[in-house]
Specification:
This protein is mostly helical and 437 residues long. Helices cover 84% and strands 0% of the residues. The chain contains 15 helices and no strands.
Length: 437
Amino acid sequence: MTKRRSLDIVANSMYLIAAKVAIMAMGFVFWLVAARAFDAGTVGLAAAAVSAVMLCTQLALLGMGSSFITLLPVHRERPGHLFDTAVATVAIVSLLASVVFLGFADSVLDQLSTLTAQPLFDVSFVIVAIVGTLGILFDQASTALRRGDQAMTRAAVSGGVTLANLIGFAYVLPRSSANAIFFTWLTGGVAAAVFALWQFSRSIPNYRYRPRLDATLARGLLRVGVPNHLLTLSERVPGFVLPIAVTELLSPTQNAYWYAAWMMAWVVFIIPIQVGMTLFAEVTDQPERLDSHLRRGLATSLIIGGVAAVGAIILAPLALGLLGGGYAAAGTTALRILVIGVFPLSVLYAYFAICRARRQLGEALVLGCIAAIGGTVVSAAAGMHAGLTGMAVAWLLVQAVVGMVAGFRLRSLLAKATRVQPVGMEAAVRLPSEPVP
């Protein structure tokens, strides 16, 4: 593959963080408009639907992004074929996952079933699940190609189109329902997906997207991706399940308040997540520089994340107050507690990144599952007895314990890495059945 412009670890991380911050900033404006134009119950129900479709995207990804990062060094001369197969795989799986969830919601969930009973919502849900899953894959592919700037421009396109459509619904059709709010995510997701394919045609030499599914490559992607995928699910699922749980166990109105607080906290959490993904890509490509990459990545995550957390703590009542007095009253304390989690998450995601790069996922999966199950179950139980503030405290305590364990294990892995000559990743990931380019 002909060398194209690429970015170093800090610049790549900064662009990826900027991309997520941009989409979250536009998301804040989106929910601000929604909160001002619709009642809290309608907003909470729409937020639960968005969380549900994001849960489907995470389930359907199957680690394809991590697989692409891991296998790219082997396919550096022919990345397009690998990319197309990953796209086809996640598109098919996301279709299946969304259909299964719609059936589950229609038969089990009381609140969301009011939406899934509408055919237009069902069609929109499936499409949003597909383009949402592809969006995550595209961002991780840009990470591997060291083109985080592409993710930033895609975020602007997606967020801009989604927001513009919401404003249309809010002010042209002011009596629109939660279904209409959700539909705007379809327009933004489709626009971003089309733009992404154009970007990759320019950044990958001689590449044009073609719908194709290479069975051999797909098996190789799944073999590498599924263990990584299970780890990713442990990281992300609580954030998507909790809004659904709040909607069903408390009320759509309480979920509107929780979702607003969690959304703002997520802007801070994006920092360790994206730095961790960049660290994974760098250590995979240059395993001999594990120590220096880790120190630089962890310092970046802690410093920038710490500054962002302090800003969120100070601005919490003002930011939530923009949505309405009820949002500020119910969510300010919860938001301030949640953002403290950036510190244990920085350590945890750095640990996960090293485990991914070294393909030592067993222990990381155990720790990730403890964090996911504990963070979801304990937080939901606390919410039923102590409200949103109790949920936030419970979630933070679980992350703090898991972060401490991750820190001890990270020190152990680094100590071993200094005593053992690393094995080149190309040899570690080459597939026996893979054809020689």
